[in-house]
Amino acid sequence: MNYSTLKKTVALSFASLMVVGIVNAQTDSTKTATATTTSSETTTPKVFGGLGQYKKFSIGVNVGATAPSVATGGSNDFTHNKVQLGYGLSFREQLAHSFGLQLDFHGGKVEGDNSKAPGQGGGYTAQSFQTKFWSGTLSGVVNVATIDFLRRKNSVNFFVTAGGGLAMYAPKVTYKNGTVVDWEGHSGNSDGSGTSKYVKELIIPVGAGVKFRLSDVVALNLGYTETFTDGDNFDGVKRAYLHKDKYSYGYAGLEFTLGSKSKPSLEWVNPVALMYDELYDAALRQEVEALKGRVTNVENAVNDLKKDSDGDGVADQFDKCPGTAAGSVVDGSGCVIVFPKADTVAATTSATAYSNIQFEFDSSVLRTSSYPVLDATSADLRSSGKSVEVDGYASSEGTAAHNLALSKDRANSVKTYLVNSGVDAKKVKVKGYGETNPIADNSTEEGRVLNRRVQFKRK
C-alpha cells in the first residue's frame, strides 16, 4: 500500500467513525429525552466514593494536518509549510475529574520548502524536505475549564497536555542543485550517514484542545500539539547556528469510553451535581433525621435526669420524698432531715445519755446505732458545762498490748464525735484500759460483745 492509498484509507475510516459517533449521540439523546419525560435523572456515585464508581478508560483515534513550524514561533530551516497528513491512536486512564494519563502513538509526514525564501539564498541551500515519522508519548491531560457546569453533565471540556516520549523519523531533503538526500536506511549520524532505518530522538509534546461529549460513550476531540525534538535533524538540515527542530499537529478525533453501561464516565461527571445529590439524597436525609431524633432522645433523657420539681437538689428520678417544702434540708434520697431540738434532747437525756457505746470486733469505728446516745451526751455536756472521762475497753482476744491500743482508739473515736458536735475538747478526757475491768464473761461471745465498749465517767 502506498502513502496516498494509506491517506485515503485513514480518512475514510475516520469519516465512518464520525458518522457512527453522531448516530450514537442522537440515539443516546433520544433515550435521555424519553427518560426525562418519565423520571428525573439521578446520579448514584458519591463525591468521595472512589474511582471504582466510574468508567476511567478510553481509546481514541484522530487524524489531522502537520506542519514544520509551531504557533508559538521560533526559527525554522524552511520558510514555507506544506500541509501533510498525520494520524494517531490514544489510550487514556482518567485518574480524577480533571486529570488523566494518556498514551499516544502518532505517524505521518511533515513537509516544507524554501520556495519563498528571501533572495533565493541567504544560507537556504535546501529546496524542500519531507519527513516520515512515528512517535510514542506519555502525557498528562488536565481539564482546565468547562462551559457547562450549569448542567448536570458536562458537555464541553477544555484541556491542556504535556509529556515526553520517543520519535523515529527519516527525512528526505532536496537541495537547490538537484541533490536528493534520503535518510531512510542511512540514519544513525547527525549528517544522515549510518545504517539505521530511522533517526531516534526524544521529544516533548505540549498541546491544548477542546472536547465535546456526543454521548455517554463517544466524544469529539479538537486539538493542537506542538512537538519539540531533542535534535536538529528532523528536517534533514543542520544549520550553522544551534537550535532544535519542532513540528505541529492539528487534529480532530473520536474518543470512546470503555466500561460498564451502569457507570458514568469520570471525565464528564459534574462533581457539583454529585454534591447536590448527596446533600438531597433521600436515604441520607432520613439518616440525618433519625440522628436528630436520637440526639433529641438523649437531650430529653438528660433533662429528665436533671429535673427537680420540688427544688430540693435531688432529681425526681432519685427523690423518694417528692414535694418537700422549699428551704428544707434533705438527705441524698430527698427526704427531710429532722434535727432534735434542745428541749427534746433534755427530755431524753436521762434515758440515753452516757450509755455504753458498743463496737464491732477489732474495730474502733462508731456504729450508727450509737449516734442517738452520743447526741444526747453531747447535748447534756454543752448545756451543763460538765466534764467527762471517756474510758475505752476491749475483749480478751489478741494480745494485751493490741487490746490496749484498740481501747484508746475507741475512746478517741467517741471524743472526736463529741468535739465535732460542739463539746469543748478540754471537757473530754480519754483513757484506754485494754481488756481489763470486763463487765461480762470473756469466755462467751455474748460476754465479749459487751466488753467491746466505751464508758463515760461524769465529773
From TrEMBL:
Residues 346-459 form the OmpA-like domain. It is a multi-pass membrane protein. PROSITE patterns: OMPA_2. Its main location: membrane. Keywords: Cell outer membrane, Ion transport, Membrane, Porin, Signal, Transmembrane, Transmembrane beta strand, Transport. Gene3D superfamilies: 2.40.160.20, OmpA-like domain. InterPro entries: Bact_OuterMem_StrucFunc, OMP/PagP_B-barrel, OMP_bac, OmpA-like, OmpA-like_sf, TSP_type-3_rpt. Residues 1-25 form the signal peptide. It is found in: Cell outer membrane. It holds the Pfam family OmpA. This is OOP family OmpA-OmpF porin. It comes from Mucilaginibacter lappiensis. The lineage of its organism: Bacteria, Pseudomonadati, Bacteroidota, Sphingobacteriia, Sphingobacteriales.
